[in-house]
């Protein structure tokens, strides 16, 4: 079985990373080279207090809360709508950051003209990182399922906002990587296994044969050897996944990993949230600097949610899937 603290590792790990990135979102790498982030900052781009997390964490928390009642796409959709319309699971009762692709998908979820898993945009230009940033809590419910079922669950949840297969494959690589880490594999071992699984899946489906070229660097164990200049941290889902691997290959602690992520610039909150979730699994949430933990907005609410999810899963031999 996975270690008992996985839910705290994931939820605290991603939200602390998110909060580190919020004040300097969209700043260039050159700006951050001149004034690098070393801890929580206040105000900045979004004029929010230190420790404030964004839509990345809000949507992940909505997913986690929905899973308390089992796996139900309509309920997940309602949680996402409540976040967008009613500021549910926000830091301060205000929605201040979201992507166009996500907002368009939520409008379709509200219209109920399509099943929830068909609400996401399906064009190549819809491959932002809005599904990747929120998908990690799902691994707590899928890690003991057969491989194909894990994939189908990831595809359904990712496609609620991002319906292109590239986004699904990125999310699936990420969740498989997390599962490997959760079961005690080293980061290198987990990356190798996730690469084998997703590469084989792409090759097995003729409709996806063109996707393999986009994952070359992700599947290459040498991505950690690339220079910082060769890594992008834009909002493109492939870029964020590449940046995540690069940061984790080039760090030895949670703190080091997320600071590498935020100081890449551009989509700082999402890069650090995606890195932070995995770094939380790798090093444990107790390895996060205490000062950051104390500054994290709604820390106790997040811990309570994590514990409730952990208890829900551990008390159910056969989760409601």
Automatic annotation (TrEMBL):
Cofactor(s) named in the record: Mg(2+)
Co-factor binding comment: Binds 2 magnesium ions per subunit.
Keywords: Hydrolase, Magnesium, Metal-binding
Pfam families named among the record's database cross-references: ADP_ribosyl_GH
Gene Ontology molecular function: hydrolase activity; metal ion binding
UniProt-annotated binding residues for Mg(2+): 54-56, 267, 269-270
Entry similarity comment: Belongs to the ADP-ribosylglycohydrolase family.
PANTHER family, alphabetized: ADP-RIBOSYLGLYCOHYDROLASE, ADP-RIBOSYLHYDROLASE ARH3
Identification of the protein by name: ADP-ribosylglycohydrolase
